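User: I'm curious whether this sequence folds into something compact or stays loose and floppy. Could you predict its structure so I can see for myself?
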Amino acid sequence: MNSKIPIFDIAGHTKYLKMNDHKFLLNTPKLKKESQLSSLVENQTKFNLNNCEFSIYETHRPAFGVKLHFDNIAFTAMLQGKKWMKLENKTPYFEYTPGESILMAPGETMVIDFPEADRIPTQCISLSLNPEFIEDTLNYLNYALPKVDETSQWNVHLEEYFLFNNQSLASATNNIMRIAMDTNSQKDIIADFALKELLIRLMQTQARKLVERNLAKNKSRISYVVDYIRKNLHQKLSIDSIAKLAYVSKSNFFKMFKEELGTSPNEFILKERINRAKELLANKNSIKETAFQTGFSDTNYFTRVFKQLVGITPKNYQNKVMFFE
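Assistant: Here's the prediction. I'll summarize afterward.
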């Protein structure tokens, strides 16, 4: 669950102040000198792989209404700078910054503004993926490595196009970037394995987003369990009892949870407690009451965990939320 406070700039773009999102940044190749660029707007450096076209785009001067079209599924990620963009005929303008990624459906077009590129050049990547490779990978996963929860399948959700990079997705993206830019004669073979990992991490990130938005509720055992966790954050939650609710053994429950959401049940519960705490703090609950309502018996421990996951103390978070009201 991502708390965002909308602000509007003079051009009418919607900016979101992200109060509670830990986004993992990607590695950033060195920007080229302007004399090395064939274009100062979305200069493309392309690396062709067997099942993927990997590109680095750089923009060094302001520009507006720039269009990028993708014929195949494309995964894009911001490295440096900032863009305002929209998906043509699909979304309004939104801010696109480092730590964020977008999945483009086949045939979609980005419309991009670069209002600050003369001061802060932008750099992003795109991976245009071979559709047959995606289909073969999904077929293999569903046949050879089916999920423990038989009601769920491996699938790329094109409607879940906007993502915050978690650690796993960022690591997989950095890996394919490194391989694409390498001169290894076997890099096509290596890249195929890396692309499969990227697809798995992408699907897990999407699954977590679906669960967080409650869209998957009642469609699978994992969704039922997540709903139960959310309704009982104020109580002590036992993995043994939760596994019984899912009608699987404890070991299979851990496996089911990890393969579906890319995180352990304990990590998920802790994050959900902190997400709920942020909601309570935004509603002006005291630190002590917030800790109690989210299953923390010790206020000091709650404060320590909150700061570790959010980056600021509960009190400072509450003060920032109040400031933007």
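Summary: The mean pLDDT is 88. The longest strand covers residues 52-59.
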